[in-house]
Design a protein that fits this description.
This protein has 16 helices and eight strands. About 50% of the residues lie in helices and about 10% in strands. The structure holds 5,6-dihydroxy-NADP and zinc ion.
């Protein structure tokens, strides 16, 4: 068992109409002037933004707004947000939306609280020494950014998508009303469920040992997400299923399912970030498209975990060799992805990559991980290229 730090300072307000508590929460955490940051407009269309600004007006909390955070949020808007915050003396950020709005807000927060170019943090050149305090109203269960220490930003020049992790970026509060996710397109709901599973699976498929309690939590979380994802395919308005998935999303990426292991594998995410950077695909769909090829490439080097996953999570019978059981587990998860209408290869994802694109992605990925990464199996550039090729 590895030693670990578990730090989850985020106050969670969960349930119907939780967003009505937002103004009080901003006051509680000392916000005097707020930047409300959101995405491409879903919160305008749903009326959520208006309800939030009305409640801040009533509470007498001044604010400015900045929309436009796109999926795979861009550095250019982050720079705009930093400028705006400095000009308006903003001291608190409120992200209303999904991982993209939250991550963009975190980056703005780093940019305001630190001198110099905020991209330096994403380029691993230096570490942030602070972040503006941030609150979140979550509208899609997916990335877990509402409780996580990470933020993922895409630099337009060279389409470089990179993550930066720091405890300073963990939100002060997260408002989670499962009903807010009911306006999601089915595709985004399924992308979210995939991402949630993958945050736990990245921590689960390791060769670094672990803890019984962590494995039990991880397996319980994965089974719960799969069950409720299928309920939502049939009935997207099922409140309880939405709630199960929303809370699973936070627990999957707040560190809980990694306690005692070696930090996890994370190569499916690294490979997906290249797809997201180059082709602007939805993160969850990109993960589903690459996972099977990654799993088939590495499973022999992490056989006990793949066997256990097949039996405990995918319900595969304990008959046959370990390799056969592991492969059945991989196939069963791909079948699940198909049932929730997720792609299982790049073609189904709508990506028709050239040989040069595949080589470029593998190269950028290798640079992004400093040469090699992975716990299930350590992958170098040639391995990354082989996985991209297999996923065609
Ligand atoms: O932009 P709007 O108009 O709000 O529309 C969004 C967007 O088109 C829409 N949406 C969100 N809530 C909705 C809604 N539409 C209708 N009703 C609602 N209630 O859904 C689309 C996707 O939103 P986005 O915020 O992009 O999704 P997600 O939460 O999946 O975030 C994806 C980004 O987060 C990064 C991903 O790489 C990607 O850039 N990640 C962040 C992580 C973190 N910070 O910890 C970890 C993840 O592994 C991931 O890398
Ligand atoms: Zn993810």
């Amino acid at each position: 068992m590895h030693p670990f730090n578990y730090y989850t300072p985020t106050k969670v307000i969960f349930g119907r109409n939780a967003e009505e508590k937002t103004a009080g929460l901003i006051r509680e955490f000392g916000g005097k002037k707020v930047l409300i940051h959101y995405g491409g407009g879903s919160v305008v269309r749903s009326g959520l933004l208006k309800r939030v600004t009305d409640s801040l007006d009533t509470a007498g909390i001044p604010y400015v707004t900045l929309g436009g955070a796109v999926p795979n949020p861009r550095l250019g808007l982050v720079y705009q947000g930093i400028e705006l915050c400095r000009r308006e003396n903003v001291d608190f950020l409120l992200a209303v939306g999904g991982g993209s709005a939250i991550d963009s807000a975190k980056a703005i927060g780093y940019g305001v609280a630190n001198e110099g170019d905020v991209w330096d943090f994403y380029d691993y050149k230096r570490k942030a020494e602070g972040c503006l305090p941030l609150g979140v109203i979550l509208t899609i269960a997916a990335t877990g950014s509402e409780m996580s220490d990470s933020s993922v930003i895409t630099k337009e020049e060279g389409l470089v998508k990179r993550g930066y992790s720091s405890d300073y970026g963990r939100p002060r509060f997260a408002v989670m009303d499962p009903e807010l996710t009911m306006t999601l397109p089915d595709y985004q709901t399924a992308c979210g469920c995939t991402d949630i599973m993958m945050h736990t699976m990245e921590r689960y498929f390791t060769n670094g040992g672990g803890m019984e309690i962590t494995d039990a939590l991880a397996e319980g979380l994965l089974c719960t997400v799969m069950k409720n994802a299928e309920i939502l395919v049939r009935d997207p308005k099922d409140y309880d299923a939405r709630a199960e998935i929303m809370w699973a999303g936070s627990l999957s990426h707040n560190g809980l399912t990694g306690c005692g292991n070696d930090g996890g594998d994370w190569m499916t995410h690294k490979l997906e970030h290249e797809l997201g950077g180059l082709y602007d695909v939805a993160h969850g769909a990109g993960l589903a498209a690459i996972w099977g090829s990654w799993a088939r490439y590495v499973y022999r080097d992490c056989l006990p975990r793949f066997r256990r996953f097949a039996i405990n999570v995918m319900g595969v019978e304990e008959a046959g060799t370990d390799e056969e059981i592991a492969l059945k587990g991989i196939e069963a998860l791909e079948d699940f992805f198909r049932r929730i209408h997720m792609p299982t290869n790049l073609r189904e994802l709508g990506v028709h990559a050239t040989k040069e694109d595949l080589a470029l992605m593998a190269h950028k990925c290798a640079v992004g991980v400093n040469g090699a990464k992975g716990s299930a199996r350590l992958l170098k550039e040639e391995d990354m290229l082989a996985i991209f090729r297999a996923s065609m």
